[in-house]
Amino acid sequence: MERTPKIVIENLSFSYEDGTEGLNGVNLTIYANEITALFGPAGGGKSTLLRILNRLNDLVDVKKLTGRVTLDGDDIYAPSVNVIDLRRRVGIVFAQPLPLPLSIRANIEYGPRLAGVRDRVKLDQIVERSLRSAAMWDEVKDRLDESGFAISGGQQQRLCLARVLALEPEVILLDEPMSGLDPISTAKIEDSLQELKKQYTIVIVPHNIQQAARVSDHAAFFLQGKLIEEGPGTQLFIKPREKRTEDYVTGRFG
Amino acid sequence: MSRFLTQRLGFAFLTIVTILVVLPIFFVVGYIILKGGSAINWEFLTTAPRDGMRAGGIWPAIVGTFWLTIGTAIFSVPLGVSIAIYLSEYARDNTFTRLIRLAIINLAGIPSVVYGLFGLGLFVLALQFGTSILAGSLTLAIMTLPVIISTSEEALRSVPQSFRTVSVSLGGTQWQTIRKIILPQALPGILTGVILGLERAAGETAPILFTVAAFFLPTLPKSIFDATMALPYHLFVISTQVPNMPVQIQFGTALVLMVFVLTMNVIAAVIRSYYRRKRQW
Prior knowledge:
The complex is a heterodimer.
Chain A: E1 5-16, E2 21-31, E3 35-39, H1 46-53, E4 62-71, E5 74-75, H2 83-89, E6 90-93, H3 104-114, H4 120-133, H5 137-140, H6 153-165, E7 171-175, H7 183-196, E8 201-205, H8 209-215, E9 218-223, E10 226-232, H9 233-238, H10 243-249
Parallel strand pairs in A: 3-8, 3-9, 6-7, 7-8
Antiparallel strand pairs in A: 1-2, 1-4, 4-5, 9-10
Chain B: H1 3-36, H2 42-46, E1 49-50, E2 55-56, H3 59-90, H4 95-109, H5 112-126, H6 133-157, H7 161-169, H8 174-203, H9 206-209, H10 231-240, H11 247-278
Antiparallel strand pairs in B: 1-2
């Protein structure tokens, strides 16, 4: 199958206002309808990279950002870019389940409503479709008006996924989305990812190497802000080229 | 001396001191009720003073304080909350913002009689509002602003940062985020601060002394350009300026003022505890 580049990262370097270096000279292509896993030890720059892809790092004090990131060929840091539109096209699910202090229904309608969708029928469709895609419609369909905090942590995290799906994004970023979850919830989300990639491009910072190996089509190994090695998931986890990747994958450090 | 004994003595000392602090409050409240309770009746609450204020009621003063509190709220709440939103959500930490904060802190430290004089100069004389509810409300509003700003800002800041990040990540603008998530979540805290600020305004004498309060004016104000009687100033007048004043009228007036202020306090406490129980984060 022909692979289409969705996001192209060229020579990207990034540092925070306080001087900490986030990323150093990263080149990486993320292909459409694949699951790309960014993995490596903590502090390697994976989450930083995710936040650059939908410009959430605009909210923190950035000292320096050089290089280029393109989405479908367009530079996302060009002055003409509408950041709000970009964030709708590139949605993110965070490590902690973070429902907004609203009902389950209102959590999912939040993004579409901000974008101006007012039609009740349309909104109801969005709610049902998003919750089905996140594999939780049957669990919550009778309690949509309860608070987003009233459900379990695993359900909250799937609610957050559904909330992103409601935006009908093109790319979904997942920042250790299963770190606080039990194995059953994790499996449910991993299963839905395999379905979702048919429609979306997915970039995930996995919870651990096993998960990276389970879910990824393509994987990239980050160490201290540098991209050490990338390749098809099967190759990277079974037969890495780099010594450092092998050491990490086999558990010698990390 | 064993360290356990030291500890016991320490706790005992702290307990006694705490009780000593609470005692005067009960004493003051009790004393006022005791001395003024007998003055409270329908006539006292609903009629104007008579016989050089030595008889009759305090209705004009109650009405005046009520309107002054409303007027203060109209001017100080929208302004104070807007400033708080700016400081909490938009302002960057730079010299300009630090200057604003410094100004607000100093505003809070100005003696209330100075506000009164300022109000006289600006609102009564320069802007020619005269001694009026308008001038008095504006003066009280400026005095109340620091309280409303700082409590509102604190309420806004206590809303978790993650809500802001999530809202923005879902394509919200900063303003949408504030309007739909941050303000509703901070509202109980803001309301509590507003009530506490207004409560202080309702009980102040000095700022209204030159700007609105009438020594004796049995008719009710008809517009915002009228002067009016007000409870704190009326209490001052009948306690110091009128000879042979019946003591129970003085304490009756104090009791009404106290109930007015304490009621606002209780409302603030109820709002706070109700929403704290409802809050999920």
